Amino acid sequence: MPESTLYPHVSVDCVIFGFTGEKLNILLISRSGINEEECYNDMKLPGSVIYENEDLDDAAYRVLHELTGIKNIYLQQFHSFGSPERTKNPQDIVWLENAIHMKIGRIVTIGYVALIKIGQKLQNFSDKYEAHWCDINNIGQLAFDHNIIVEKALDYVRLKLEDDPIGLYELLPKRFTEAELRNLHEIIFGTKVDIRNFHKKFLSLHYVVPLDEKQENVAHRAARYYRFDKIIYNQIHR
Amino acid sequence: MPESTLYPHVSVDCVIFGFTGEKLNILLISRSGINEEECYNDMKLPGSVIYENEDLDDAAYRVLHELTGIKNIYLQQFHSFGSPERTKNPQDIVWLENAIHMKIGRIVTIGYVALIKIGQKLQNFSDKYEAHWCDINNIGQLAFDHNIIVEKALDYVRLKLEDDPIGLYELLPKRFTEAELRNLHEIIFGTKVDIRNFHKKFLSLHYVVPLDEKQENVAHRAARYYRFDKIIYNQIHR
């Protein structure tokens, strides 16, 4: 291993949100190792130390692409995290030094948010990672300060989508029902929505276009599918 | 000098906005040196490499405090900049290596925005720095990628103040006139404001409280002073 230095390393970490139709998930990576002769197995955000001559956005896109195979993803830098306390758990340091084959003093990480459609072939991840979609309400204790990063990412997404709801349609499948959009609203903004008021608002969204297709093989009454029209949306919002 | 490494260094840079009543200024530091036997003199943002065991926010507060002597300042992290191109100018590398007595490969910087009242004893800066208030429209070519950082900071402030105008009152003096608030609006949002419409809106701002004081020694009709009431503001906005 190269000699230890006091200089901080720099990484990117990606909080990748996906929506199942019922729950908001994030994509996490299984991590296992041995610390003080005890085996452990926990989860972390997908991330990487930045490469020499690599810009921050490029590093985040690289992580996403390596993991998902997808290139065209909604991705935003949202906050950087640099507390020396980030690496206070010796288990994290040991894991990191094994992963990047370098001695690490501390590591500053640049946080990115991605919004993607879970459906889109996104159940087959690169063999390089053991990746899982996890319900945002049930992620347990993550490595490093990744719980703090997820909290802050969620705050960012809420503010961002209040201002410009286009991100909601990055999360929804290409064709979606009114109930799915309503669920997503309730989860993102953390408030119960009145069904009738929501329906009125839904009908007034000119960029949500009804399709000539309905749900199939459902126990309840089959709901109509809609699609998001980006051109109409941009005419209204830009 | 310690040996060169390929690991990036991490710094903070502060875009400190102040308002003269007529113009939006930022606080810049004079930098001079010799590059290829030519003397140069230019300007940069106040900033610093982060210290060992120092969190990012702490580093930004330290820079502000060292420079201005003020501790209680509106300060927000807004974006990080890590392009390898940031340090493509050899003059910047030479200056930086002299300043921090280390060999530098590249440097990732975390950008902060501060909003302060210029009046507030803020003409006497620490002797350690040669600091100047400069009109945002006339800053010329700054060191490193600092012009890009300033642009991005201004975009951030615009969006932030559209959402929550409290920052406008961080920039205004403790007592201010309607014309000063209107000027600031025009500069921040980059649009000409209709005086009569603005006046109506101004009168409806319950948190802008008239004082029993008027301008003195002015050529035109003396305007009334107002103050910002944070308690009323918080009742409305939180």
Keywords summarizing the entry:
elongated, homodimer, Nucleoside Triphosphate Pyrophosphohydrolase, two-stranded antiparallel sheet, 238 residues, alpha+beta, 2 domains, disordered N terminus, 7-stranded mixed beta sheet, Arc Repressor Mutant, subunit A
Structure report:
Chains A, B: InterPro entries: NUDIX_hydrolase-like_dom_sf, NUDIX_hydrolase_dom, WH-like_DNA-bd_sf, WH_DNA-bd_sf, WHD_NrtR. The structure is a homodimer of 238-residue chains. Helices cover 32% and strands 29% of the residues of chain A. With 238 residues, chain A is of the alpha+beta class. Chain A folds into two domains: 9-163, Nucleoside Triphosphate Pyrophosphohydrolase; 175-237, Arc Repressor Mutant, subunit A (Orthogonal Bundle). In chain A, strands 1, 2, 3, 4, 5, 6 and 7 form a seven-stranded mixed beta sheet that branches. A two-stranded antiparallel sheet of chain A has the order 8-9. Chain A is elongated and about 60 Å long. Residues 1-6 of chain A have low confidence and may be disordered. At the A-B interface, β5 of A face β5 of B.
